[in-house]
Design brief:
A hairpin with a 2-residue loop joins strand 5 and strand 6. The chain has one domain: TIM Barrel. Strands 1-2-3-4-7-8-9-12 form an eight-stranded parallel β-barrel, surrounded by four helices. Strands 5-6 form a two-stranded antiparallel sheet. It has about 325 residues and is of the alpha/beta class. This is TIGR03571 family LLM class oxidoreductase. Its EC number is 1.-.-.-. GO terms for molecular function: monooxygenase activity; oxidoreductase activity, acting on paired donors, with incorporation or reduction of molecular oxygen. It comes from Candidatus Corynebacterium avicola.
Length: about 325
């Protein structure tokens, strides 16, 4: 099957979400239950409002000590379902636990989702952090940084190799190839968190970076370090985004009140925060509403009317 020479940063999902000097908004994950009808309705509302992307997580097991199962469903099945019920919104993972996944199967699934969604898939990958999952998958948690690097290399070869041998520590492929191939030269790839790698490695081997929420001065330093690493690697502009948990207060003037990974906040303070984040160089903010006191539908409707129009999807 023919391999494209078009850069992955030209596909529709990427162009809708990322551009230098711009900040867009994403939604992640929409509800903590398995009600697909409700989840689809929320994502469709987010698409209509102008959210650039919806993000889901890769949580193979319900781990008792974490108590968090994301959207419950496997991310590739879930996003394929969303692709069939939406038209424009980018569909992202934040993130696939790369050391736990067979890299060739991951190459096939990601390329397939890219094709089925008409180029809307954005693939975030991470090294993982739940000890119980590594034990269940017979992988030493301490090896995950090394395995991440190797699986990333094999994943990319799976997208591009045409009947050429691919070898790695846990297997080899010869006289065969992964199909389908992505619509571009690869699937848009973002590292999420540090992935137990250096900033320089992530800048050189990904199309962009998604990190965690920090206070503004700390995030400014983080963004500047990322930009410097991209420049040192001769990579040019590569976007950086963050995740942000918000409990949207009903009072529009409610001041920002710090919470874990985010804020209880009114929409006026949220608009100010996002404007400042744009100024310091963030290109995307993944908003999670699942920890708020209000119904997700109410908070989403308020964001759609007052906040998203100030930071709309691109293209």
């Amino acid at each position: 099957m023919q391999v494209s020479d078009v850069p992955p940063t030209t596909v529709p999902g990427w162009r809708r979400t990322f551009a230098e000097g711009e900040l867009t908004l994403g939604l992640s994950p929409v509800t903590p239950d398995g009600d697909l009808e409700r989840q689809v309705g929320l994502v469709q509302a987010a698409e209509d409002a102008g959210f650039a992307a919806v993000w889901c997580r890769d949580i193979p097991l319900n781990v008792e000590t974490f108590g968090d199962v994301g959207q419950i469903h496997d991310p590739f099945m879930y996003l394929t379902w969303l692709a069939a019920h939406t038209e424009k919104i980018a569909l992202g993972t934040a993130a696939v636990v790369l050391p736990l996944a067979h890299p060739l199967l991951l190459a096939k699934r990601s390329a397939g989702l890219d094709r089925l969604s008409d180029g809307r898939f954005l693939m975030g990958v991470a090294s993982g952090d739940r000890p119980e999952e590594f034990a269940a998958f017979d992988l030493d948690k301490g090896d995950r940084g090394e395995v991440f690097r190797e699986h990333l290399e094999v994943l990319k070869k799976g997208w591009t190799s045409q009947m050429r041998p691919v070898r790695w520590s846990r297997g080899r492929m010869g006289g065969a190839e992964v199909v389908p191939k992505p619509s571009a030269s690869g699937v848009p790839l973002l590292t999420v968190g540090s992935c137990l790698q250096t900033t320089e490695f992530n800048a050189a081997h990904s199309d962009g970076w998604l990190t965690y929420h920090r206070n503004l001065p700390a995030q400014k330093v983080t963004v500047e370090k990322w930009r410097a690493s991209c420049e040192e690697q001769g990579q040019g502009f590569k976007p950086v985004g963050e995740s942000l948990w918000i409990d949207l207060a009903e009072d529009p003037a409610y001041p920002a009140e710090g919470r874990d990974f985010g804020f209880r906040i009114g929409r006026e303070a949220l608009l100010e925060l996002l404007a400042t984040q744009k100024e310091l160089g963030l290109n995307h903010v993944m908003i999670s509403l699942r920890h708020g006191d209000r119904p997700v539908e109410d908070s989403l409707a308020e964001l759609a009317e007052y906040v998203v129009p100030e930071f709309p999807a691109l293209g």
